[in-house]
Amino acid sequence: MPRIYTKTGDRGETGLIGGGRVPKDDLRVEAYGALDEACSSLGLLAVHLDAGLSAVIQGIQRTLFEMGSELATPDAGRVPGGGAGPALAPGAVLALEGLIDGWEAELPPQHAFILPGGSAPAAVCHLARTLVRRAERRAVTLARSAEINPEILRYLNRLSDCLFVLARLLNHRRGVPDLPWERQEEP
Fold first, then answer.
1. What is the mean pLDDT of the chain?
2. Alpha-carbon gap, residue 147 to 113, rounded angstroms
3. For position 84, what pLDDT does the model report?
4. Is residue 123 predicted with pLDDT exceeding 60?
5. In 10 A of CB 91, how many CB atoms?
6. Over 70: is that where the pLDDT of 86 sits?
7. What angle do CA 183, 105, 96 make, to 5 degrees?
8. What pLDDT, on a 0 to 100 scale, did the predictor assign at position 179?
9. Alpha helix ranges (H) inside 47-176
10. Which of 32, 41, 47, 151 could disulfide-link to 88, CB 3.0 to 4.6 Å?
11. What does R_g of the chain's alpha carbons equal in angstroms?
12. Opening angle at CA 164, ends 162 and 165, nearest 5
């Protein structure tokens, strides 16, 4: 295994898969960096969950990691063998929708906006949800100037919905009510 430090980024640039170097604040780097943040937050969430839910989250982490690799490869034709191809398996978005539908069936109806929080696992889940939304925004920005797999945008949009429902489920299973948002009265 090579050393973790290469010193090639000491001047504010990084290499892309398939060759080429870009500034570390390039839109492409911002997009896959935001995916990395979201993936890391899901790792924190997974340690708060039972084995079954943890396995679900780790599967999502693998998908995000593969999506990051896809975003870091602007020209798959320059990668020997043509690159790994699209990161999202057919049906990835449908799988998230299946999770959402199954979890929502266990929940009471939602009648108001809710504040992030409740139990510690739900709070971490809400944090992960917001980081997924940031990754989605960065991917949307990148998509304006570069061609990216449109399934990435669909997956990230659905994933944030999935994490919202999971946060509610985590509270529900612990007997912690959702905290509804209410407009504060003016003093």
1. 87
2. 35
3. 53
4. yes
5. 10
6. no
7. 90
8. 87
9. 51-71, 92-104, 120-145, 150-173
10. 151
11. 19
12. 65
Token pair, residue 16, equals: 């892309």
Rounded (10°) CA dihedral 35, 58, 115, 160: 50
Alpha-carbon distance 5 to 20, whole Å?
A: 19
**Residue 23 to residues 11, 33, 74, 76, 88: CA-CA distances in angstroms?**
9, 13, 14, 20, 27
Q: How confident is the model at residue 26 (pLDDT cuts 50, 70, 90)?
A: confident
Domains of the chain: 22-74+91-100+114-175 (1.20.1200.10)
Q: What is the pTM of this model?
A: 0.86
CB-count burial class (<10 Å; 0-12, 13-18, 19+) for 157: middle
Written as one letter, the residue type at 83 is G
Distance of CA 183 to the CA centre of its chain: 30
